[in-house]
């Protein structure tokens, strides 16, 4: 979820009611703010918010059903999750591909923080920050090319 997302805000009361049932259903129920953990957006291929995953025995299944407390409870208690095909190991969150994607998302957030620091704290104009990043990219290309 993301705190600015209207759909996430609408889901929050139902999710909290469902979370109260976690101990009875013998499941851990959590939520992750993708603005605080940007690497997870790449690792789990988050393309829309909110995105819900069911994880059991190392298998990840994306939940796409109705979003009410009753539907969530039935999904777990009736083991409806068994009817959903797990995410392939190639696209699983612990695969090399998704770990690499996560690293790229984290790198993009680091670059964004650097840009913000350069423009707001150091006082460099936006175009100057772009020039710095362009030169850094060219330099890295030269170093890697050699």
Automatic annotation (TrEMBL):
<keyword id="KW-0249">Electron transport</keyword>
<feature type="domain" description="Thioredoxin">
    <location>
        <begin position="1"/>
        <end position="81"/>
    </location>
</feature>
<keyword id="KW-1133">Transmembrane helix</keyword>
<keyword id="KW-1015">Disulfide bond</keyword>
<keyword id="KW-0449">Lipoprotein</keyword>
<keyword id="KW-0564">Palmitate</keyword>
<dbReference type="GO" id="GO:0015036">
    <property type="term" value="F:disulfide oxidoreductase activity"/>
</dbReference>
<keyword id="KW-0812">Transmembrane</keyword>
<keyword id="KW-0597">Phosphoprotein</keyword>
<dbReference type="GO" id="GO:0031966">
    <property type="term" value="C:mitochondrial membrane"/>
</dbReference>
<protein>
    <recommendedName>
        <fullName>Thioredoxin-related transmembrane protein 1</fullName>
    </recommendedName>
</protein>
<dbReference type="Pfam" id="PF00085">
    <property type="entry name" value="Thioredoxin"/>
</dbReference>
<comment type="subunit">
    <text>Interacts with ATP2A2.</text>
</comment>
<keyword id="KW-0496">Mitochondrion</keyword>
<keyword id="KW-0813">Transport</keyword>
<keyword id="KW-0256">Endoplasmic reticulum</keyword>
<dbReference type="InterPro" id="IPR036249">
    <property type="entry name" value="Thioredoxin-like_sf"/>
</dbReference>
<keyword id="KW-0472">Membrane</keyword>
<dbReference type="GO" id="GO:0005789">
    <property type="term" value="C:endoplasmic reticulum membrane"/>
</dbReference>
<keyword id="KW-0676">Redox-active center</keyword>
<dbReference type="GO" id="GO:0090331">
    <property type="term" value="P:negative regulation of platelet aggregation"/>
</dbReference>
<feature type="transmembrane region" description="Helical">
    <location>
        <begin position="122"/>
        <end position="144"/>
    </location>
</feature>
<dbReference type="GO" id="GO:0005576">
    <property type="term" value="C:extracellular region"/>
</dbReference>
<keyword id="KW-0964">Secreted</keyword>
<dbReference type="InterPro" id="IPR013766">
    <property type="entry name" value="Thioredoxin_domain"/>
</dbReference>
<dbReference type="InterPro" id="IPR052454">
    <property type="entry name" value="TMX_domain-containing"/>
</dbReference>
<dbReference type="GO" id="GO:0003756">
    <property type="term" value="F:protein disulfide isomerase activity"/>
</dbReference>
<keyword id="KW-0732">Signal</keyword>
<keyword id="KW-0413">Isomerase</keyword>
